[in-house]
Amino acid sequence: MDYRAAAKALAGGTPWPVYVCYGAETFLMREFVNFAVDKLVDPADRHMCLARFDCTEIPLDRVVDEAETPPFFGGRKVVIAERAFFLTAARENGKVEHRVERLAEYVARPAEHTVLILTVESEKLDERKKVVKTLKERGWTLAFEPLSEAELVRWAEKRAERRGVRMTPGALRRLVERTAGSLPAMDQEIEKLALYAGDGGIADEAAVDAFVPRTPEQNVFLLVDHVISRRAREAVEVLHDLLLRREEPIKLLALIARQCRVLLQVKACLERGLSQKETAAELGLHPYAVRLAAEQARKDSERVLAAMLAEASELDHWMKTGRTDKALGLELFLLRWARREAT
Predict the structure, then answer these.
(1) What is the DSSP string of 228-246?
(2) DSSP-based three-state secondary structure for 343
(3) Do residues 239 and 227 make contact, with C-beta atoms less than 8 angstroms apart?
(4) CA atoms lying within 13 Å on the CB side of residue 153
(5) H or E, element range at 202
(6) 251-273 tens-digit pLDDT
(7) Are 171 and 204 in contact (CB under 8 A)?
(8) Cβ-based neighbours of 68, under 8 Å, separated by 6 or more
(9) Average pLDDT over residues 231-250
């Protein structure tokens, strides 16, 4: 069962006794936990019926003790144990000792009066551990994975509707692009667009362009795209705009070099036969960013990208040692590569 189905069952009054929430999409994870608390505990009773623990600071024994203790006034309680890295293959720092067998005993006979929620910001659980196997067999684990581009668009559309505004299809795609698929950023920008459009209003692409700024990283992605697509004039226009905003040339060069490395890494992964989703997991990138990088990487060869990265490293040294004017050196670098023949 995925987290959407689990939320539906929870809303219908049939919560699981234990939830293990894991994955890289922490925004969705936090929203699910907050939704569970809202459904299971009355706000007036939360000081008595809601307990939160940080497992990097508090031993698991304390968490289980709390879960086994009945609420003072009866009813149901919720116990949340965050950063439960003992369920993963990550090495523990030794600050806190966790007796995982205690959790295994609890999972075998969970308290009827408690809903125990464990969260961990990790893409995988360690299925070699007996307690993890048991939790998975019982269907009490929920994976919160990064959303695909289509899922991001649907998420943004529903989020906008919840705030009383309708976004056009082009605006939704532009929002995903401008925020690089970051749910927290999308949520903040949708709130801004809703205030602009008003209740029942419509936000189009022009509204997104006006109110959702590109980050320096996104501008550099566009800059590199212009360069490897041999659009010299457009590349220089983006650079001049960034310099007018007082962006530091050395920082911009570092971001350009980083983007070149990402393109080379994505190329290498895809040539090994990995899917875009597998590539995202291996490189620690958002799947949407990998899709864009894969499209961009096809525009030039590995040899050219590697040479561009090497020259960027050399230019960085020249900038930092004063051998070249930073802004002029960066502009000439971009022009040389934008005028170069693709190979």
Answers:
(1) HTT-HHHHHHHHHHHHHTT
(2) coil
(3) no
(4) 12
(5) strand 202-203
(6) 999 999 999 999 999 999 999 99
(7) yes
(8) 106, 111, 114
(9) 92
